[in-house]
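Task 17 of the worksheet. Students: predict the tertiary structure of the chain below and write it out as structure tokens. Keep your answer in the requested format; marks are given for formatting as well as content.
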Amino acid sequence: MLRACIKIHTEIGPGCFEIFYEETLYYELVKKDIAIERPLLMPIRYKDLEIRDAYRVNLLFPVLLIAGIWNTLYLSMALIFLVGKTAVELPFVYDVARFYGKQKLMRYFFFFQPLHILYTVLIGVLSQTGKYEWKRRRTK
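Model answer:
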């Protein structure tokens, strides 16, 4: 997968929209018979306006995590995604914790990192399929 990304970026270069890179990566992976799942596209409603395909739900990480119970290859891929997510978010969260004087809470960061993924997926699905209230904000 990394080789395909490097190949695409080398041939095309930077500056294109994300959808272009996603489509070309999908093409390269399918050509090599690598199973890949595309993000689920969902609508967003604003008053009377409905925007189709405005919200993208990528279910690849939870699927890999569940499949990893039976296959160590998928589990290792899920753990690599988790490490990458942690590496990206850790500096930001640490700076915020330092700003608010809550560095002691950083010891829980690694424990809650996988739970944050599940929370994000759950709230994303609930916000599109049902009614709920969060921080005194209601959705339909």
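Marker's comment: The chain has a mean pLDDT of 78. DSSP finds five helices and four strands in the chain.
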